[in-house]
Amino acid sequence: MSGYEVDLSYLQDTYKKLQGIAYGMDHHTSAVNYKTNLSPSQFGGEGFLEADNLYQAHETMKNQLSAMMTTLQTMIQEFTDKTGSAHDQYANTDTSVGDQFQRKAAQ
Questions:
Q1: Is 3 left (phi over 0), alpha (psi -120 to 50) or beta?
Q2: What is the mean pLDDT of residues 60-76?
Q3: Number of domains in the chain
Q4: Domain presence at residue 30
Q5: What is the helix, strand, coil percentage profile of the chain, to 5?
Q6: Assuming Cys at both sites, which of 26, 33, 40, 82 could form a disulfide with 55, CB separation 3.0 to 4.6 Å?
C-alpha cells in the first residue's frame, strides 16, 4: 500500500498529555484568581504614600496574569480538541480502508 501512515498511538499520547497540562493549569489559574488578593493596607496603608500605587500595580498585574492564563488555557484546549479530532478522523479512515481491503480480499 502506498500513501501515508499515521501513528495513532502518538496522537493519543499527545492528547492525554495535553489534557494533563490543562488539568494542571486549573490549580495555577485558581491561585492567580483567588490566592493573590491583597488589600491596600497590606502595602503600607495611609502612612506610606506609594501604597495606593503599589496596590493598583498589583491589581493590574493580577488581572494581566489572569487574562494570560485564560488565553493559554483556551489555546491548550483548542489544540487538545484538534488533536483528538485528528486522531478520531485518522482512526475512522484506517477502519474504513481496512474494511475496504477485507471486502476486496473476500471477493
A1: left
A2: 93
A3: 1
A4: yes
A5: 85, 0, 15
A6: 40
CA triple 17-18-19, angle to 5 deg:
90
Parent domain of 20:
15-80
For the chain, give the number of residues: 107
- State the Cα–Cα distance between residues 38 and 19, nearest whole angstrom: 32
Could you tell me if residue 92 is inside a domain?
Answer: no
Angle separating helix axes 51-106 and 8-34, nearest 10 degrees: 160
Take residue 46 and report the three cell numbers written for it.
495611609
Spatial separation of the C-alpha atoms in residues 41 and 94, rounded to whole Å: 64
Rounded distance, CA 46 to CA 101, Å? Answer: 80
50 touches 40 (CB < 8 A):
no
How many other C-beta atoms can be found within 10 angstroms of the C-beta atom of residue 81? Answer: 12
